[in-house]
Amino acid sequence: MVKHKIKEISPLYEFWKSDQDEINDKQRRLKANKDQIKSILFLDEPYKWEQLFQSIVREIINGDKSCIKALFVLLETLDTDVQNQLIRDLEGCDVLDDSTMEIIKKGTVIDTKKSRNYYRLIKILFAIFINPYGINNKRPKNHLYERTGQFFYRLRSFNQ
Description:
With 160 residues, the chain is mainly α. It has ten helices and no strands.
């Protein structure tokens, strides 16, 4: 159930369900923060952005508050209205505890120990390559991780 909630609050949810044609891509691009250089991830690599978003939110749900800083980086790639909507959606889907939501709403970065960073990094890299969140990327595959992710998507679709 949590998996579906996170998927559905993603700013890219409608894009993944669409034909991902030029019109859909133009609508997706309108959600980016044009004033942030970091937005290049959202603009040019939406598949990677989505994998990072879902992985990071799951890590936060599992109690790793050090990932809130990474969530803030992803939020900065979004237009202010989209950021605010995403924060409201996170709060509304009741997957994060109240103290975590307060930190996110305030936008304050907290200092936490970094003992799990290597393990988390490996998990997120693994997710980018194997597409555990079932993202159907219909766009041209310019990177190896997009090709492997689509391979695993098709493999899972074949088995269902």
